[in-house]
Design goal:
Distance between the termini: 16 Å
Order of helices and strands: HHHHHHHHHHHHHHHHHH
Helix content: 55-70%
Radius of gyration: 23 Å
Amino acid sequence: MLFNSIEFAFFLPVVLFLHWSLRSRSIWVRNAFLVIVSFVFYGWWDPRFLSLILLSAGVDFLVGRSMEGASSRQRKVLLGTSLVVNLGVLCLFKYSGFFLESLAEAFTFLGAPLDLPSLSIVLPVGISFYTFQTMSYTIDVYRGRLEAEKDPIAFLAFVSFFPQLVAGPIERAANLLPQFKTRRTIDVAEATDALRQLLWGIFKKVAVADQAARYVDLVFDGGTAFTGWPLFLGALLFSIQIYGDFSGYSDIAIGTARLFGFRLMKNFDLPYFSRDIAEFWRRWHISLSTWFRDYLYIPLGGSRGSRSERVRNVFIIFLVSGLWHGPNWTFVAWGGIHATLFLPLLLTGSNRKHVGALPRSLGAPRSGPMLSWAWTMILVTLAWVFFRSPDMKHAVAYLARMFDQAGSPGLPIVPVPLMLTAPLMFVVEWTTRAREHPLAIADRPAAIRWSTYFTLTFLTLFLFDDRSTFIYFQF
């Protein structure tokens, strides 16, 4: 079920009403209800893959319980079991075809072609998200940072919680799991603010991302019809599309969770106002970048060790992060580009130069912050070409034609609504950057608040298209 669908518009209020009508019942009953509705939400797409969620949750719940009182060697074996099962399922459904195809191409290149079977396996929605969420639980239990959960229903609710099940944020058990063990009460002010955040997320998805997609699809799928500036604009608008799409999903997920009394982690923090690549990764898809930092980068040694070890660690984390997004060499290349851009900052000790809040302003055009921001935005935009392209050949050809100004045709028509909604999104987010989310404006005059709500709602309903999906559903 999609957040931007008619079905969800009916599903959410019904589930909310039933959930809060159970507030006098036990916590166990309310968690069991959330498990059921989460399974309905996910099974709306394909109920067959609910078995994978049950497998992942069941294995990790039993592994966590078995670690209690186990010896050090037994705990390692149990952790290995969790990792093998979760990564094994992930690799089978997401990467098996890619690995076989890459192996066949390698042997063909060496002059010894292999006749390997071709696999066509349906990718379960959200598998990369919930497997990483359950793996973080078993790793934290193994490290002694978290006690094993004893309630299977609470644990299954944590794994399957529908607002963030299919595209994050990738929650840590230490943050989300305890929230299923406490009695939640209705807070009108919190629920009202949650609706504001949900509205902002839907606006970014429908009125910004989906509008940008019209131009992006035209130029990226247009073969050799365009050269020069139309292609650069296509890359720039894809940057806007993927941000509006994914951060919009996160806002909807966080807002929806708040309606049920839960607090999810912030997943985006104005990444396109970053002043270098390191800051960009502290602000983009925060739940994934911190996951790789805590469970891969730091265990490898992080920024400690020799220069060669630090270089190795950077490339490992970025290449794996790229591959996490999909079974395609374009994602690996995208990760490699960001590793190459990040490495000089790490080696010169300037990777933490921009930590904390953004400046009060980016400054005049000739000032340092403005130039740093513009350069970072250009690099990020060019790297997105690999992320959006179907294969490496297409990405390289796209970049080559982008810098070919000879005979460039006129610009395709940019969707008119996007000329309003995209600047509006960035202006609002910049001017409200100190707030929890852009529509946390309960302290503003009523005229300003209600005119804002009406404008965003009108634009969203006017531009609504329930046929569009979310980009990160494919990951």
